Amino acid sequence: MSLLAVEGLDVRHGLLQAVRGVSLAMDQGEILALIGANGAGKTTLLRAIAGAHRPAGGRILLDGTDVTALRAYRRVAMGIALVPEGRWLFPGMTVEENLLVARASRRTGPWTLDRVLDVFPNLRPRLKAKAGSLSGGEQQATAIGRALMTNPRILLLDEVSLGLAPIAVERVYQSLAALIAEGTTILLVEQDLGRALRVATRVACMLEGRVVLEGAASSVTREQVTEAYFGLGREEKAGA
Ligand code: ATP
Predict the structure, then answer these.
(1) pLDDT per residue as tens digits for the range 160-175
(2) What is the pLDDT of residues 113-146, one digit of tens each?
(3) Cα(161)–Cα(136) distance, rounded to whole angstroms?
(4) What atom of ligand 1 comes closest to residue 206's alpha carbon?
């Protein structure tokens, strides 16, 4: 059985349908990169899986249990953790407080404060610093660390590289490599196509709310992804 299954999901923002009949399945230990142009519906899909946005139709299953109607905090307690675009830390609280707040999920598992700091060693000297005073890379590390502290079964990462200096992006991805090596299941939105194809086991490309290409990262070509990204094949067919 898939760890995560999304079946025929429709999500609306008022009259705008941002996600259209999306179906996806992920097994334990998979890294699925979700790619697509701005406005393709990636963030909306991630937020719907996390319970931050109620779908208009379809189902979301975690390990076979239908979680579609559950509130976000109940999904966190079941093991779905979202690292949102923009990080959403508590800026007036320290790094340590931001990390420890995640214990409210009451999920037990391998992730402790010490273990998070092993993965993100740059946070150790910053533990007592206010989150609002951190660099972008440190904030991103804190946001991912906070999600890990809930001991997730699946980690949803929305554009972790956004707004970071290249060196900070490198550092975050090095830390993700450690998580991946341990078999963490990750669904990530990544704008950098090359990076997405390198890090992921599978890739899904969204265009105007639909998944238009999906396959093993080793089997899809850059050309296929670029075509799907811009909807080029579709236009060619329409023009033929
Ligand atoms: P980006 O890379 O820009 O974040 P995305 O693929 O994540 O893009 P979404 O942010 O999910 O796409 O947006 C999908 C569509 O829904 C877009 O047309 C966007 O304008 C619209 N949208 C997103 N959030 C809202 C909102 N809160 N209210 C109204 N429309 C929204």
Answers:
(1) 888 777 887 888 888 8
(2) 998 898 888 899 999 999 989 988 899 889 999 9
(3) 9
(4) 6
For strand 16-26 and strand 4-13, is the pairing parallel, antiparallel, or unpaired?
antiparallel
Ligand 1 cavity residues, CB under 6 Å: 13, 16, 18, 36, 38-44
**Domain limits, the chain:** 4-239
Whole-angstrom distance, CA of residue 239 vs CA of residue 58? 33
Atom of ligand 1 nearest to the CA of 40: 6
Closest to 82 (Cα-Cα) out of 47, 112, 120, 39: 47
Overall pTM surpassing 0.85 (yes/no): yes
Question: pLDDT tens, 184-193?
Answer: 899 999 888 8
Contacts of 125 (CB under 8 A, 6+ apart): none
Q: Under the phi-then-psi rule, with left for phi > 0, alpha for psi from -120 to 50, and beta for the rest, what region is 225?
A: alpha
Angle of helix 166-181 versus helix 136-148 axis, rounded to 10: 20
Q: For domain 4-239, which CATH number applies: 3.40.1190.20, 3.40.190.290, 3.30.70.2750, 3.40.50.300?
A: 3.40.50.300
